[in-house]
Amino acid sequence: MTGRPMGRRPPVATTSRPRGLADATRRIHAASGILEEASFLGSPGERVFTFTHRPAGRARAGLVVCSPLYAEFLHNYRKEAILGRSLAASGIAVHRFHYRGTGNSEGDSPAFDPMLEDALEAAERFRGEVSIERLAFLGTRLGGLVASAAARRFEGAPVALWEPPLDPVAHFREILRAARIRDLKDGRISTEPNGSSLEQLERDGMADVLGYSVRRDALLSFRGHTLPEELGEDPRPVLLVQLARGQEIRDPYARMLASLEARGFAVDARAIHATASWWFSGNPDDAARTLEAVVQATWEWLEAVFR
Amino acid sequence: MTVVRGEVDLTSPKRESPVFFPAGRESLFGVLSRPDGEANETGIIVLGGGGTTPTVIGRNRFWVGLSRRLARLGYASLRFDYHGLGESTGSARFRLDRPFIEDLEGALALMRDAGMTGHVLVGSCFGARTALSGGPGISDLRGAVLLAPPLRDLGLSEPRTQGWGLRDYAVALVRPRRLLGTKERLTFRRYLRFLGSGWRMARRRVQRRLRGRRDDLSWVSTKFLAPLLTLVERRVPLLLLYGTRDEEYADFERARDGRLGDLLARSPSVEVRTLEGQVHGFTRVDSQGPTMDAIVDWITRIAPGPR
Predict the structure, then answer these.
(1) Do B20 and A211 touch (CB under 8 A)?
(2) Residue B223 and residue B230: Cα distance in Å, rounded?
(3) Which SS3 state, helix, strand or coil, does residue A37 take?
(4) Which of B3, B7, B25, B113 would you mutate first to test chain A, the one with the most A CBs within 10 A?
(5) Which of A36, A88, B112, B128 has the fewest CB atoms within 10 Å around its CB?
(6) A186 contact residues in B (CB cutoff 8 A)
(7) What's the pLDDT tens digit per position in B158-193?
């Protein structure tokens, strides 16, 4: 463990330098006492990177975070990390992980079924390690579909959704538009035969969306997995956080939530005005405000759910 | 595993470990990649670009791919999140004239603890400026790869205001929204930052006028030039890599047409390479492969063989 430098303010966390070939490492935050553990788990070639935030004392509940993909994964990253620390500081343990084929994990390219497997494995592992009975899921964008599907396997597990797509095919279409905007900006005129971007992706196998490889396999794997279907029939608490310009919940979301409520789901919706794009770098001040608002909204909801 | 043309191979080495390490008061997170066999005594430290996304991963997992490829070739490398990003603690504001030297020093300490007796820095944009600024203070620096390093210390509004005259600045003082060029809300803090960048621009123009020399380098940041000259004098191998479509490359060409060109021509330790397209930000998948090839090719030439 590193010592405190003489004559200077203390570090915010005590950390341990790596010894040998550790696949896990820990740190304790000085102010809050929360413990964070980073690790690579699994067999060679399929190792998954995980990150757990644990309260100083016993956890009263847990949250598994299912991240989005591509640029959205990176742009959303800090929100998930800060949420993890905030929840751990109030007694809720949080488990985050990178699906195989994303982030620091091994593997080549994400697809729905392996992503769901990773989420379920993460949830089971987490429940055992932290000894929690009550478990919730958070999913952002395409991760919302994964979180919903995973939560269905746990009776009554609450689900928080940050700007989820109702239909993943529409989401991929939206993603591919970002590539076209970039091409227009760069003055690249497409000489491809007429056809939608989705058709081009299915034909070419891969699309370059602002430097991210978006593969046909990923699109095909998500087909048929709509949000209402993945949420299932068994009622559970659902929070939907809309991150977009404006203060009103969009009609498609409102209709879905009304349908859930009619079937006995306890629904809550928050519209957070956000100007930051999921795919383009924006103003850091706006990003910071959005982060604070979405973390606060989710924290409040989870506190109420786990009271 | 299928690797699409232009993409990088993400097969991971067996020895990839998560690490926390101190940097000033903060605790940073990184991933230490080590070769399966004997490691080259020269370690690689990756310094990502500035922004809001985790620098341990990079766009399209570029840094993940680079680290794993270097490990397969016998090099240990550390990629990490700057303070304020990803899993690291703290908050960050990125300014080219204020690189994160403490973060770099923390990374160096970790690599030395891991047994490295020499270091090569690989920095992109803000990371390149961090490498440049920190390089002269590193006695065991074996070389540095500078990807699209900016020559100026451009703040928020400076790219937009470069062509402004005095009247434009005067108008902006009373109509600050003109600085943004949008209808977004302008906070007071942001207005102050714009004033600061406007002041720096005006000062540089006055200096240029007083000197009256067209090929002088007063428009180039001293925080780019001074450490570059120091490293050149020390004959530290440097690779400056630009894309032909990088905005930073236009500045570099202009400087190279003047006195900087003479200097670099007399410096056998400095290699300047350009790649077709964009290097900055890794915004095109088909540029990422050639960029990584250039980095790896150069490193294996200047630091060949295992320990």
Answers:
(1) no
(2) 11
(3) strand
(4) B25
(5) B112
(6) 245
(7) 555 555 666 666 676 666 665 555 555 567 776 776
What's the pLDDT at B113? Answer: 93
Look at chain A and count its residues. Answer: 307
- The SS3 assignment for B218 reads coil
Q: Do B54 and A74 touch (CB under 8 A)?
A: yes
Q: Are B37 and B4 in contact (CB under 8 A)?
A: no
Contact B110 A17 (CB under 8 A): yes
Q: Is the dihedral of CA A35, A38, A41, A46 positive or negative?
A: positive
Report how far apart, in Å, the C-alpha atoms of A41 and of each of A48, A60, A100, B283 are: 5, 25, 11, 31
> Between residues B274 and A7, which one has the greater pLDDT?
B274
Dihedral sign for Cα atoms in the order A118, A119, A121, A127:
positive
Would you call B90 exposed, middle or buried from its count of C-beta atoms within 10 A (0-12, 13-18, 19+)? Answer: middle
Query: Which residues in chain B have their CB less than 8 angstroms from residue A47's CB?
Result: 12, 16
B228, with CB counted inside 10 A (0-12, 13-18, 19+), is: buried
What residues contact residue B30 under an 8 Å CB cut-off, 6+ apart?
A: B18, B19, B20, B21, B56, B78, B79, B80, B81, B107, B110
Distance between A8 CA and the closest CA of chain B, angstroms = 9
- What pLDDT sits at residue A261? 97
pLDDT above 90 for A60: yes
Contact present, A47 and A106 (Cβ < 8 Å): yes
Beta bridge pairs of residue A49:
A40
**How is residue A223 annotated by DSSP?**
T
How many Å separate Cα B212 from the centre of its chain? 31
Distance from CA of B269 to the nearest CA of A (A): 31
Backbone angles phi, psi at A214, to 5 degrees: -105, 120
pLDDT band at A161, cuts 50/70/90?
very high
Alpha helices in A233-283 (DSSP H): 251-262
Give A248 to chain B, closest Cα distance, Å: 19
Residue position matching structure tokens 């591919």: A176
Q: Give the C-alpha separation, B223 to B228, whole Å.
A: 9
* Nearest-Cα residue of chain B relative to residue A72: B53
Nearest to A44 among B14, B22, B34 (CB): B14
Which stretch of DSSP H or E encloses residue B211? helix B188-211
Indicate the residue type of B9: D
Low-confidence ranges of chain B (pLDDT < 70): 1-14, 155-170, 172-186, 190, 193-194, 197, 200-202, 204-215, 305-307
- Cβ neighbours of A264 (radius 10 Å): 10
Phi-psi region of A196 (alpha: psi -120 to 50; beta: other; left: phi over 0): beta
User: What distance in Å separates the CA atoms of residue B75 and residue B120, rounded to the nearest whole number?
Assistant: 10
B143, β-bridge pairs: B120
pTM for the model stands at 0.88
pLDDT band at A182 (very low <50, low <70, confident <90, very high): confident
Report the alpha-carbon distance of residue B262 to residue B248 in Å, rounded: 19
Average model confidence (pLDDT) across chain A: 89
Residue of B nearest to A79 (CA): B86
Count of residues for chain B? 307
Task: Determine the pLDDT at residue B263.
Answer: 85
